[in-house]
Amino acid sequence: MQKLSEDIVLVIIITLFILLITSFIVIFIILYQKRHQVFIKEKAFLQHQFHQTLLQSQLEIQEQTLHMISQEIHDNIGQVLSLVKLNLGTMDLNKPETLQQKITDSKELVGKAIHDLRSLAKGLNTSFITEMGLLRSIEYELDMVGKSGGFSTRLETDGEPVKGDAKIELILFRIVQEVFNNIIKHAEATEVLILINFLPGELKITITDNGKGFDLSFYINENPNFGLGLRNMQNRAQLVGAEFKLTSIPRKGTTVTLSLPFSSS
Amino acid sequence: MLNAIANTGVYQINSFLSLLIASLYFGKKFAGCRIKNIPVIYAGAGVTLLALLAIIFTENRTIFNSRSYSYTAFVITAYAITYYYNKLAHPAIAGITASRTFWFVTGLFFYYSGCFIIFCTYKLFVQIGKGNFQILWSIHNFIILVMCIILSIGFRCKSYQKT
Predict the structure, then answer these.
(1) Do B106 and A21 touch (CB under 8 A)?
(2) In Å, how far are A35, B10, B31, B73, B84 from B117, measured between CA atoms?
């Protein structure tokens, strides 16, 4: 009898223990499902935020491109055609010696306008850039910069050039174009050096000028447009997973570095 | 006498191999997880295996002693609880009850935690001369049956579930 009661107590204890383990497992499943729901909501929120940021960046890039086109047309092509109009307006048929000179000047100016328009079109033509590839596109653009602004330019490459994803190359090219535009407009430089490193699984582009440089923190705080341009370049770099760094020392020039994981497409 | 030593030896090998295989299994599961102290866990697993060997070599070979079993049960239960903690910390899988690994771990957890008390108390009952240890093994067999049912549920789940 005593043995029976001891057995019963033992069975009850072990049964309770087994029930405890089973409860633990059930509670785990319930807790897990609740946490999973929270996890899914957080993931959806982060994805939504990312898409918003991406869309905003794309819109800013579009605005910037249109702004650049309008500036280019106004500053260069518009000015040249205005000069041609001025020449045509001041032509005097009774003075053949000046007439010939004015016609010659006008022809040169129209030729320059056509050349500038073609360069602008090529620079904006995505398929042209995609066909040439990143390296040749940068080489071409650097050549244009050298000819237009009287700069001494140099392009150096290190490593075996690799052709990457067309979209990534296009975005990188646009960033480099933007840097060139800033050098032409603001840097007052005489030399521009580009170094492109094709490392295993990585690409590094370094653009250095010997211009007047600037105090980076001062310009970001005082000039919102400057900060906007810098932010646009950073946003574009982020789109392709690139790291964008800008360093500048007043009177000593500016260096822009782009580095990202890069492999053959 | 020789039979007793041979059987006892087999039981001890069983407890050691159970711990080794469980350590490898859980090590593979934890390798893909974001638990911070993975090297500590691996080091701990190594230490526990060595401790188990020490227990085995100090046990009396002529009489069955469940110390090594209770030690193995304790460690595997700890592995299972770590698995559950990791899943709660990173609940990325939709429908964990459809995951094969969950059922395997639950089966192991159920068996080893349920039998831990049995393994711990078996030697005590033998020493005090109680006859209750016979019913303990009946309960142990019942727990094995439940574990097999849980493992069979796991085998029916699809293997491509990321766990």
Answers:
(1) no
(2) 32, 21, 30, 9, 21
Q: Count Cβ atoms below 10 Å from residue A12 Cβ, excluding itself.
A: 10
Q: What is the pLDDT of residues A205-236, one digit of tens each?
A: 999 998 888 877 766 666 655 666 777 788 78
Residue of A nearest to B146 (CA): A18
Residue A210 lies in a domain: yes
Q: What 3 state SS string does A111-170 have?
A: HHHHHHHHHHHHHHCHHHHHHHHHHHHHHHHHHHHHHHHCCEEEEEEECCCCCCCHHHHH
Whether A202 is in a domain gets the answer yes
What Rg do the C-alpha atoms of chain A give, in angstroms?
A: 32
Task: Give the residue from A128, A192, A129 showing the smallest Cα distance to A156.
Answer: A192
pLDDT of residue A152: 87
Contacts of B113 in chain A (CB under 8 A): 21
Look up the domain containing A199 and give its range. Answer: 134-265
**A250: amino acid identity, one letter:** P
Q: In this model, does residue A84 exceed pLDDT 60?
A: yes
- The vertex-A116 CA angle with A113 and A119, nearest 5°, equals 150
A28 vs B136: CB contact, 8 Å cut-off? no
Contact A11 B139 (CB under 8 A): yes
pLDDT digits (tens, 9 = 90+) for B36-78: 566 776 777 777 777 777 777 776 666 667 778 888 888 899 9
Structural domains in chain A (count): 1
| In a domain? residue A161 | yes
Instruction: For residue A229, tell me if it sits in a domain.
Output: yes
Q: Considering only CA atoms, which of B110, B119, B78 is closest in space to residue A19?
A: B110
> For the complex shown, is ipTM > 0.85?
no
Q: Which CATH number do you get for residue A140?
A: 3.30.565.10
In the prediction, which pLDDT does B162 show?
Answer: 47
Looking up tokens 């159970």, which residue turns up? B18
Which tokens belong to A119? 């360069």
Instruction: Show which of residues 36-65 on chain B sit within 8 Å of chain A, judged by CB atoms.
Output: none
Report the predicted TM-score, pTM, of the whole model to 2 decimal places: 0.57
